Amino acid sequence: MSTAPIDYLLSRRSVKFVQAPAPSDADLARILQAGMSAPDHGKLQPWRFKLIRGEAIARLMELVFAASERAGRPVAAEKIASNRAWLGKVPLLIALACRIDHSNTKIPEHERMLAVGAAVTNMLNAAHMLGYGAYWSTGLGTYVDEVNEALGFDGLDYRFLGYLAMGTPVRASEPAVRPDHKAFVSEWTGE
Ligand SMILES: Cc1cc2nc3c(=O)[nH]c(=O)nc-3n(C[C@H](O)[C@H](O)[C@H](O)COP(=O)(O)O)c2cc1C
Q1: Does residue 13's CB lie within 6 angstroms of at least one atom of ligand 1?
Q2: In the chain, what is the greatest distance between 2 CA atoms, to the nearest angstrom?
Q3: What global pTM score does this model have?
Q4: Residue 89 CB coordination number (10 Å)
Q5: What domains can be seen in the chain, in order of their start residue?
Q6: What is the pLDDT of residues 81-119, one digit of tens each?
Q7: What is the distance between the alpha carbons of residues 89 and 170, in angstroms, rounded to a whole number?
Q8: What is the whole-number distance in angstroms between the Cα of residue 141 and the centre of ligand 1?
Q9: CA torsion 11→13→18→20, rounded to 10°?
């Protein structure tokens, strides 16, 4: 029995623990292209993605630990160990950023960030639909300037929004327990 598209959206859940293989080039192209279908006020196309794989992930990790220390926010030894264990298996990280085009003064910054958030959500859903696991994290020095700059996302022109870890799930996930939408919805009639 095939899965209806709506069921993919309803069943998506984040998968932190992934391993090789990463998405194939063709699948990764489709995942990234799904990001391009996001709503985008003013067609500013503010999303920027940087692919980090294999040895580069190990290099990023060491940079994060050293830069966090230099920034006066050292990463605890247990966190270093758990990150090494986790990222040692992750085959692909996608660094996520919003480019701030300063020449446009009409579209507020938060709308540009929302467009990137929508693009990343499309990518999470696309990865899920293709059978991969993906997880959005703002760990790994997301708020350390030196890390942002090393990735090419300096704070003047970019807002760095973390990473997607992506690969093949290490184990099958149980279905997530989700809240009932009714708790968050009310009707406005204007009367
Ligand atoms: C912008 C953003 C940043 C996140 N950063 C982290 C993080 O650093 N650490 C973490 O445990 N979860 C983080 N999360 C939450 C996970 O990505 C994930 O949503 C959560 O584990 C719940 O899983 P679910 O998506 O299946 O509901 C972040 C989510 C978003 C949207």
Answers
A1: yes
A2: 61
A3: 0.97
A4: 15
A5: 11-168 (3.40.109.10)
A6: 999 999 999 999 999 999 999 999 999 999 999 999 999
A7: 9
A8: 15
A9: 40
